[in-house]
Amino acid sequence: MIITAFFPILLGITLIWISAEKLEKYSVSAATSLGMSPFLIGSTIIAFGTSAPEMLTTFFAALDDKGSMIIGNVIGSNVANLSLVFGTALLILAFKKKDIKQVSSIRNNLLILLAVTFLSWLVIATNPFSPFSSLILILTLILVIIYWYKTNSGAEIDLDSKEKYISLKLILSLGTLIFAAWLITYGATNILERYQLGELFIGFTILAVGTSLPEIAAASSLALKGRYETVAGTLIGSNIFNSLTVLAIPGFFNSSLMAESWNYASWSYLLMLLTFVTLCFSMYIFTAINNTKKANKSVALLFFSAYFFSLLFAY
Fold first, then answer.
1. CA 63/CA 65 separation, integer angstroms
2. What is the pTM of this model?
């Protein structure tokens, strides 16, 4: 029955929505209590928190040797972040008639995002399932974190260390998130087998959108508060972490079975679309650096519709 096929996914998405935000919150509190600096927390803990759902669903998909599903999760999540999430936030800002102005410090992070996007394309085009590719991605991530540390350009955060029983709450949040990621992957695999849909399409839709829902909720909340700078910074960090950590996971399994269902030609159009959306996002943010501009509904709808247009290529 269709209900039994989709129930694990719906339950997993619900649990991810609840636990992802809690994991990020309690991770920050725990790191603060250990004496980590606010900017180091923003560069690492926050970015990890926003990418944790993608990492965990990818881990469980890798256990099942679902190579195409993993790549679909990475590309779909990044497209969803810059189209669904950013489009939603921009639409809210447009309805609230808010002006947008970005600080100049975001410029270098946009360049890093573009460079990482092209690097991930190169990895996917050559061999995304090799340990060497994973090593290159992880080393790049370390260099990016070092740069953030040296330049104090990590994500903006609000510190709150007043929480009690932080360790217990952190463990419960992580455990819930792991269970939720397994549910989504389990449900996606069932749908894959029952309805004979491609791994590419399942990864690009169910896994990607399901794991991006917390970011949609967070971005909407920030937009309602008028904190557009934080929305852009969080999405940049999330896409960088997705490309460098989530994409690195399958290579460490070193499984030849993952590549059996993999065909780069099937993905080239989606990679071009991801690059195009990333370029459009970067250009939009670039034009807002030290330059006040009105949030535009038409531009927001263009970003928002890009994901649905991408489904044509995924299917």
1. 6
2. 0.81
